[in-house]
């Protein structure tokens, strides 16, 4: 059974950075709910993207909810800068945080939402002691670093396991999925319990961006 409300968060990793403002305006007009902003440092993942200044600049161009995904080592060092730049939610990787609870507390101390991401090989049970502090859990359905990758089907069972863990604790954070999302894979992960879909190339590579966005609103 599908959820009544699914939020769509286009990932600007697949946008055309030569006309980034225009591309963001397109997805906003198409009915996107959030804007997913991937921050990569070339160390935690093998790619480099953008820094706080770009986020601050696009904040002036968009009223969307800014969903900032930090795929970086020592995220605590840059969290204040991304808060100042206009992040509404910051997600850090469990694998990148030595003191995860401290990092989550730092984010929430700024009055914004906090999330934790899990790489494909990271088990759900590691969230057991931090789940009550989270506003969002991001299940990566590809190995992070590059857009346009193929969906890892094992993510479906992982989402079910996560949903069960959260239900057992009476918790209801957002369950977000990122990687290889399209109309088919999106439906599978929503049926498993996800309610925020990140899609990059499926949306920004489409000849009809509005149709692509709306096709994910199950």
Automatic annotation (TrEMBL):
It holds the Pfam family Ribul_P_3_epim. CDD domains: RPE (cd00429). It comes from the Bacteria. Substrate binds at residues 11, 69, 145-148, 178-180, 200-201. Pathway: Carbohydrate degradation. Keywords: Carbohydrate metabolism, Cobalt, Isomerase, Manganese, Metal-binding, Signal, Zinc. The active site is at 38 (proton acceptor), 178 (proton donor). GO terms for molecular function: D-ribulose-phosphate 3-epimerase activity; metal ion binding. Its EC number is 5.1.3.1. GO terms for biological process: pentose catabolic process; pentose-phosphate shunt. The keyword Methyltransferase does not apply. Belongs to the ribulose-phosphate 3-epimerase family. Catalyzes the reversible epimerization of D-ribulose 5-phosphate to D-xylulose 5-phosphate. This is Ribulose-phosphate 3-epimerase.
């Amino acid at each position: 059974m599908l959820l009544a409300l699914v939020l769509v968060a286009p990932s600007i990793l697949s946008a055309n950075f030569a006309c980034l403002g225009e591309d963001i305006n397109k997805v906003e007009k198409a009915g996107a709910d959030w804007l997913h902003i991937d921050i990569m440092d070339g160390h935690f993942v093998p790619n480099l993207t953008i820094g706080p200044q770009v986020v601050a600049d696009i904040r002036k161009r968009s009223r969307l909810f800014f969903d900032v995904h930090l795929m970086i080592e020592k995220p605590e060092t840059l969290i204040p800068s991304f808060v100042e730049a206009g992040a509404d939610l910051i997600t850090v990787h469990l694998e990148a945080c030595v003191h995860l609870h401290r990092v989550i507390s730092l984010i929430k101390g700024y009055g914004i939402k906090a999330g934790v991401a899990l790489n494909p090989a990271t088990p759900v049970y590691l969230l057991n002691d931090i789940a009550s502090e989270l506003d969002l859990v991001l299940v990566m359905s590809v190995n992070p670093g590059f857009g346009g990758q193929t969906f890892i089907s094992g993510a479906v069972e992982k989402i079910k396991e996560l949903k069960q863990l959260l239900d057992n604790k009476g918790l209801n954070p957002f369950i977000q999925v990122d990687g290889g999302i399209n109309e088919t894979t999106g439906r599978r992960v929503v049926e498993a319990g996800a309610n925020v879909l990140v899609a990059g190339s499926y949306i920004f590579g489409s000849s009809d961006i509005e149709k692509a966005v709306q096709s994910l609103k199950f």
